[in-house]
């Protein structure tokens, strides 16, 4: 009898501790400050640079950043040109994708003029 009660208690306890499933909601481009709504999760897939090609010979690479909850996070950078080319076309992604929970504020860092938008996939949290 004790074993049956223990097993029943375990099932009741586990039934109250469930994980949410993700259901696709929409794909969007964020070009200004936005906050992840309640009941949603955002997946930051990529960013949209103003241009990929730029004069990079003898210069530092271009840094691409996204502001998340007030903190600038580097999400990519362009390559550096070599002695054979004045222009760079390579781009590296650093921490993508990023998963953003409800309440997270996000904004592309456009002050340097390098990013004009962020590619987001929004999911609904479904029980």
Write the layout of secondary structure elements.
Elements: H1 2-15, E1 21-30, E2 34-35, E3 40-49, E4 54-55, E5 63-68, E6 71-78, E7 87-88, E8 91-93, E9 98-100, E10 105-108, E11 115-126
Antiparallel strand pairs: 1-11, 2-10, 3-9, 3-11, 4-7, 5-6, 5-10, 6-8
Round the Cα radius of gyration to an integer and report it.
Answer: 22 Å
- The global form is elongated
Residue ranges: pLDDT <50 for 5 or more in a row? 81-88
CATH topology: Jelly Rolls
Q: Find the count of extended strands (DSSP E, 2+ residues).
A: 11
Number of helices: 1
Give structural notes.
There is one protein chain. The chain is built from one helix and eleven strands. It is elongated and about 45 Å long. It has a single domain, classed as Jelly Rolls (Sandwich). Helix content is 11%, strand content 49%. The strands form three sheets. The chain has a five-stranded antiparallel β-sheet, with no helix packed on it.
Tag the structure with descriptive keywords:
127 residues, mainly beta, Jelly Rolls, five-stranded antiparallel sheet, four-stranded antiparallel sheet, 1 helix, 11 strands, 49% strand, elongated
In short:
Helices cover about 10% and strands about 50% of the residues. It has one helix and eleven strands, in the order αβββββββββββ.
């Amino acid at each position: 009898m004790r074993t049956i009660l223990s097993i029943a208690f375990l099932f009741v306890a586990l039934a109250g501790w469930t994980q949410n499933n993700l259901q696709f909601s929409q794909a969007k481009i964020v070009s200004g400050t936005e906050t992840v709504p309640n009941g949603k999760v955002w997946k930051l897939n990529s960013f949209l640079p103003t241009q990929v090609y730029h004069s990079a010979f003898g210069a530092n690479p271009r840094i691409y950043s996204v502001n998340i909850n007030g903190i600038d996070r580097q999400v990519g950078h362009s390559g550096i040109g070599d002695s054979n080319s004045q222009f760079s076309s390579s781009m590296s992604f650093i921490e993508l994708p990023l998963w953003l929970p409800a309440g997270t504020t996000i904004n592309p860092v456009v002050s340097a003029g390098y990013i004009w938008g962020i590619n987001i996939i929004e999911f609904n949290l479904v029980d």
